[in-house]
Structures are given as structure tokens and as C-alpha cells.
Design goal:
510 residues, mainly alpha, two-stranded antiparallel sheet, 22 helices, 2 strands, 2% strand
């Protein structure tokens, strides 16, 4: 396969810290590509992994534009088509019935056939059905339900495919930032969708056609620039390819085993650039013994060796997986509530209907900036405290601050600008979940990140279905947003507690 990847002569280089059989301990890289340095990190700017990050980021933007546009368009659509509150939230929630159906399948197919072709197929499918949305809406409510389910079927592949690509393209020292940058595309997509509210009020159907065309353009660009693994990229440098392969899993493995593997590789294949120097040492083996501090009692991984990935129904009985599911479920309950319901809530407390999307997008701007800054700090912090501590601290901020914000919204009489400030704080803090449970999935199963993300995010999609239905039901029966926020407060606190007790960040499954 290596000779097909590169037409020029290839050289087999030993790489430490990779799982698999003996042949898995070497990779093929092009002999003719230049190498700036045999030791140390390969530059990021202008690299092929930077291109991978950019393409995945844009895919997430398009994904969330096509997901969030209905939450803005629903105001104009419901006026034209005379829908009740419950019917409106049924339209918003129908997307998630398709979205939950392809999470695990998307992860499996991404690992078998590659993240790139599966993601390209997914973007094409959901863009096609986005284009059909106006026709379906004006045909019947059930036709619109079906189209939104099909959009969800396509978008269900997105995050498992992207996580599978990130796990293979980025070393551990860049993992948190890579996950945060890619998932920040969700925020940009949401901002674009909400920012189009004036255009939606003018001609909501035209916006669906424009967003669909953006998806088709992405597919054409990805065909030329996006590859599933660095080993498959035809123009990657030898230096970057070896650096990625050597460091993407090494720090998560047992240190003594790495030393033995480095020694055996050097003996079998001769000295090579990837085998020079000592094996990296895990952050939790350096410096202070955190396990003896109060912080460490909650943020120290359990002892144990990595084992083969069990079947999905057995995974659902394991505490680290249940902790991740609980955290993502809780986060998504509040996230989907605000993403789908914020425009309607702001209108209810006095916002102008034509400008409501602009009001609703304001919290996502500081969220985007805070997301990038915190992820950078989290990668630095992971060199000083246990990685599991970084994940739990991030998730504590992502769930604790929104819980406090919902509590304040329940108690304080609603006013437009005071509510906007509270919502901005809540949305901004929730960005830390990208450095928490989203990155945590790759930590515990780097070789099965797409599949495991599919399992965790399937449960994390339930709030989109149940939350939309619950919100519509409560508003139709009581008309009180305080009841809606009380339910969200309960889930945020419950998810936080379960993740703090059960979350882990070492490699659990090979």
C-alpha cells in the first residue's frame, strides 16, 4: 500500500508507541521528501495536519449552519404556515431522530473505510436534503419532518469522522487544541445561521439553497485536500509524517513498554530518526504526587492496563464511558436548549423578531475566543497536572457555570439585557467541554475514537430529541421559561457529579 501512496521510492522508519503487530511498528514515508530535523516537533503552520484541521473545521461550520438555520427560520416559517408551539419544536427536534441513528455507524465506517470519504459522503447527503427543505415545508409538516430526519442522518457522520481524523493526524501535545479548533466550527456555523435572521425574515427559502451550495463546494475541495491519515497523504514531508506517528499515542502508553519497543525497533530496523532520544514520559509521572492531594483524589486515573475494546453493549456498563455519556448528555441538554430555543426565549422577553438572530449570536463570539484560549492553556496545564485533572476541570467549568446561570434565570425576573449577559456567561463557559469530554474520548481509545465518539454522542443526542419535546410541552402547558431552565439545571448538576466520580483519561482500550 505504501508504494501506491507515493510513486517515488519509500523508506520504512521504526516508530515507537504504536499499537498492533510487528509490522505496525514501522511506517512507510517518501525517501525523496525533505527532512528539516530528525528530532523535535514538526512545524504546524503550513503543514499538512494544519490543512486537515482547516478542512474539518469548515465541515463543522457547514454542518452547524445547516443544523441551526431552522431555529431562526422557524419564526418566519411558522407565521406563513400557521404552526403551534409544539409543532415548531417538533420540527426543531425531528433532526435529532436521524442524527442519533448514524453516530455509531459513522464511527465504524470511518475507521474501516477512512474518515475522508465518509465525511465527503455525509456532507453531500445533508446538503442535498437542506436544498429540499423549502419544498418539503410548503408541502406538508410530515414531509418537512422526513427531510429534517434525512439531514440528521447525514450530519450524524460528522463528529465521529472528524474525531477519527484528529486521532490519526495529531500528536497528544496538540490534541486538545485540535479538538477545540475543529469543534469551534460549530460556534462559527451557529453564528452564521443566527446572523442570517434578517435575510430569513426577507426570504427564508433562499437561505436554505445558499447553505446547500456551500456544502457541495466543500465536497469538491475536500476531494483534493483531505486524506484520512498522514500516511495516505501524497505530499506530506517525511519529518511531519514520522513526528505524527511517533507522538500521537506514545504518551498515553506505558513508559517501560515504550522503552522495550524502542530498543527492539532499533535492533530490528537499525537506527532511525524516530527512534532517537528517550521515550516521552507521561505527565502524571513527573513532578508532584498529585494522588495524595484532595485534587488528586478526584483527578487520578485508576490503575490497570489497556485492553481490547469490548462490544458496544459492554462498553455501556463501564464507568468511564458512563461518565463521558453523562457529561455530554448534560452539556447537550443545555446547549441544544439555548441553540434551538434562545431566539424564541428572547422574543418572549421583548427582542425584535427581525433582529432576534443577531441578539442570539452575541454569546457565541466570546465563546469562540474563550474556546481557543482555554484549549491552549489546557495543553500547557496537562504537562503540570494529571491529564484526567485537566479534563475534569474543563468539564466542571463547562457544566457548573451554565448550571449557576440557569439557577439565576429561574430566580431573576426576565429582562432582555440582563438575560443576555447571563446567557453569554453560560454559553462562553460551556466551550470548556471541547477540552473536557470531547477530547477525553480520544484519550481513552485513540485507535477507536470515531466509533467510541459515535456511542457517546448517540446518548448525547437524546437531549436534542427529548429536550425539544419537553420544552414545547412545558411552554404549551405553562408558558413559563423558568420551568424549562429548572429541568436544564438538574441535568447539568447530575452530569457534572457523575463525570467527576467516573471520568478517566488514560488509554483504556486498544
Amino acid at each position: 500500500r505504501a508504494t501506491k501512496m507515493w510513486p517515488q521510492q519509500v523508506r520504512y522508519v521504526p516508530v515507537s508507541g504504536r499499537e498492533g503487530d510487528d509490522e505496525g511498528d514501522v511506517i512507510a514515508v517518501p525517501e525523496s521528501t525533505p527532512s528539516k530535523a530528525d528530532n523535535g516537533p514538526a512545524p504546524f503552520w503550513g503543514s499538512r495536519r494544519m490543512m486537515c484541521l482547516l478542512v474539518c473545521w469548515v465541515a463543522n461550520i457547514v454542518c452547524y449552519v445547516d443544523r441551526s438555520n431552522v431555529s431562526v427560520a422557524i419564526i418566519s416559517m411558522s407565521k406563513e404556515l400557521q404552526w403551534s408551539q409544539e409543532e415548531q419544536f417538533d420540527v426543531l427536534g425531528s433532526f435529532f431522530y436521524g442524527y442519533i441513528s448514524t453516530q455509531i455507524l459513522g464511527g465504524k465506517l470511518a475507521e474501516r473505510y477512512g474518515a475522508s470519504p465518509m465525511l465527503q459522503l455525509a456532507v453531500f447527503v445533508w446538503s442535498l436534503f437542506t436544498m429540499l427543505t423549502p419544498v418539503a415545508a410548503r408541502s406538508s409538516l410530515w414531509a418537512l419532518y422526513l427531510v429534517r430526519v434525512c439531514v440528521g442522518l447525514g450530519e450524524g457522520f460528522t463528529l465521529p469522522c472528524i474525531h477519527a481524523a484528529v486521532a490519526r493526524w495529531f500528536p497528544l501535545s496538540e490534541r486538545t487544541r485540535a479538538v477545540a479548533v475543529v469543534t469551534s466550527g460549530q460556534l462559527i456555523g451557529t453564528v452564521i445561521a443566527l446572523g442570517s435572521s434578517p435575510a430569513m425574515a426577507w426570504d427564508w427559502a433562499a437561505m436554505f439553497y445558499i447553505y446547500a451550495v456551500l456544502g457541495f463546494v466543500w465536497v469538491l475541495v475536500a476531494r483534493l485536500t483531505f486524506f484520512s491519515t498522514p500516511e495516505q497523504h501524497p505530499t506530506i514531508s517525511r519529518d511531519e509524517c514520522v513526528y505524527i506517528a511517533r507522538n500521537r499515542e506514545a504518551i498515553g502508553a506505558d513508559n517501560s513498554e515504550l522503552k522495550k519497543r524502542d530498543s527492539s525497533n532499533a535492533a530490528s530496523h537499525g537506527p532511525g530518526p524516530a527512534s532517537n532520544g528517550p521515550s516521552p514520559s507521561p505527565a502524571h509521572t513527573r513532578g508532584r504526587d498529585w494522588s495524595k492531594t484532595p485534587f488528586g483524589m478526584c483527578c487520578t486515573d485508576d490503575d490497570g492496563q489497556a485492553r481490547p475494546l469490548p462490544a458496544w453493549h459492554r462498553l455501556l456498563l463501564e464507568k468511564p464511558i458512563l461518565g463521558a455519556i453523562a457529561a455530554l448528555f448534560a452539556h447537550n441538554w443545555g446547549w441544544y436548549l439555548l441553540q434551538l430555543g434562545m431566539p424564541k426565549y428572547l422574543v418572549a422577553i421583548g427582542a425584535d423578531e427581525e433582529l432576534v438572530g443577531l441578539y442570539a449570536l452575541l454569546p457565541y463570539i466570546p465563546m469562540f475566543l474563550f474556546d481557543l484560549g482555554w484549549s491552549w492553556y489546557a495543553d500547557i496545564l496537562s504537562q503540570r497536572i494529571p491529564l484526567v485533572g485537566v479534563r475534569k476541570l474543563s468539564q466542571a467549568i463547562a457544566l457548573g457555570v451554565p448550571a449557576l446561570s440557569f439557577f439565576v434565570l429561574v430566580l431573576v425576573p426576565p429582562a432582555l439585557w440582563s438575560s443576555m449577559i447571563i446567557l453569554t456567561v453560560s454559553v462562553t463557559a460551556s466551550a470548556c467541554t471541547h477540552s473536557g469530554v470531547w477530547a477525553n474520548v480520544i484519550d481513552i481509545a485513540p485507535q477507536h475514537a470515531g466509533y467510541l465518539l459515535g456511542i457517546v454522542n448517540s446518548a448525547g443526542t437524546l437531549p436534542g430529541m427529548l429536550g425539544a419535546k419537553t420544552t414545547g410541552f412545558l411552554l404549551d402547558r405553562t408558558g413559563m421559561w423558568a420551568d424549562v431552565f429548572t429541568v436544564a439545571l438538574f441535568f447539568e448538576l447530575a452530569g457534572l457529579l457523575l463525570y467527576l466520580f467516573w471520568g478517566q483519561a488514560r488509554v483504556l482500550y486498544t
